[in-house]
Amino acid sequence: MATRPSKAANASSAEPPRVGDTLAALRQQQSLSLDELSRRAGVSKSMLSQIERAQANPTVAVVWRLANALGVPMGDLLGNTPAPSAPVIDLVAVHATPSLRSPDGLCELRILGPIDLAGQFEWYHLSLQVGSALESQAHEDGTREHLTAVSGTLEVRSGDEKQRLKIGETARYAADRPHSIRNLGKTAASAWLVVVHVA
């Protein structure tokens, strides 16, 4: 899934972090070429180039790979400042929740899962405007997604198969092949999306 980035969230904005700028700066600090970072992270050179030029924004799983390859915490790429200690209850304000948008700006994924679970287990709140679709390329082998419709009329496609969801229904499907989530209704739609990667 590739989406277009925007400025990092702050007290007055809920826009997604500008991952590309940070990635380029970290790569240059370590004198790494795109080829070398691509080899270390297992992410294609073309995708890295698109991310750095703000033409695409990576999934949390890809950010996790890049952070490992660069030897930095994921929060450094997402522009987050780690808390000094873990509280009993960690409340994340709405404006502090990072989000990703599709290139046309009609789909938004609010990243609800903690950074330390990225690449293993991720969950999002998905919003789709009328007529929009969230198109995703194949993830790692064995990856599955679980989509629960909250409002609107949604259709899930995984490979050549399609399934329409009613409000409250959950679709579980393979995400290691091209897949999409489409709003077929006449109003905005929303859903909870959980991504489970193979350990």
**SSE string, helices as H and strands as E:** HHHHHEEEEEEEEEE
Separation, N- and C-terminal Cα atoms: 20 Å
User: Which bin fits the share of residues in helices?
Assistant: 10-25%
Determine the structural class based on helices, strands and strand pairing.
Answer: alpha+beta
Question: Main sheet?
Answer: 6 strands, antiparallel
Task: Summarize model confidence as the mean pLDDT.
Answer: 84
> Numbering strands along the chain, what is their spatial order in the largest sheet?
1-2-3-10-5-8
Strand content: 25-35%
Measured on Cα atoms, how large is the radius of gyration? 17 Å
The total count of helices amounts to: 5
Uncertain segments of ≥5 residues (pLDDT<50)? 1-16
Total beta strand runs: 10
- Note the overall shape: globular
List the helices and strands and how they pair.
Blueprint: H1 19-29, H2 34-41, H3 45-52, H4 60-70, H5 74-78, E1 99-101, E2 107-111, E3 121-128, E4 133-136, E5 144-151, E6 154-158, E7 161-165, E8 170-174, E9 179-183, E10 189-196
Antiparallel strand pairs: 1-2, 2-3, 3-10, 4-9, 5-8, 5-10, 6-7, 6-9
Helix pairs in contact: 1-3
Task: Give an account of the 3D structure.
The protein has 199 residues and is of the alpha+beta class. The chain contains 5 helices and 10 strands; from the N terminus they run H-H-H-H-H-E-E-E-E-E-E-E-E-E-E. The strands form 2 sheets. Strands 1-2-3-10-5-8 form a 6-stranded antiparallel β-sheet, with no helix packed on it. A hairpin with a 5-residue loop joins strand 1 (99-101) and strand 2. Helix 1 (19-29) crosses helix 3 (45-52). The two termini are 20 Å apart. Residues 1-16 have low confidence and may be disordered.
